[in-house]
Amino acid sequence: MSLVTEESKSKAERRFVWLRQKKKTEHKFEKIQKLVSYAPEVTAYVEPKRIKKLTGVKSKEFLLWMTICEIYVNDPPTGKISFQIPAGLSRSFPVAAFEVEEEEEEVREDGGGQEVEEV
């Protein structure tokens, strides 16, 4: 997932964070087949293993967009991450579904390739 941010700030003493981007962004988490929408401004209060009072993030469930207001992982760890909506209902998924996979660079076994000279 790549979010192009215009501004991102954090105030450690309050644990308040926000993200500003030029326009709304949507991302599909392929491992769980969920579409998520990020508003031009996303705000939250962050504490260890929990994000509270989250604004600007919605997930598509069936035909409805549901506002996500809280994200948390259990302590002790269970390998699950939970997402809660304002009505108090929550849904859990494997943490691995949200891990960023780094793209593997192709390496030629014959040692071929071109050298790039800096100017």
Automatic annotation (TrEMBL):
<dbReference type="InterPro" id="IPR007493">
    <property type="entry name" value="DUF538"/>
</dbReference>
<dbReference type="InterPro" id="IPR036758">
    <property type="entry name" value="At5g01610-like"/>
</dbReference>
<dbReference type="Pfam" id="PF04398">
    <property type="entry name" value="DUF538"/>
</dbReference>
<protein>
    <submittedName>
        <fullName>Uncharacterized protein</fullName>
    </submittedName>
</protein>
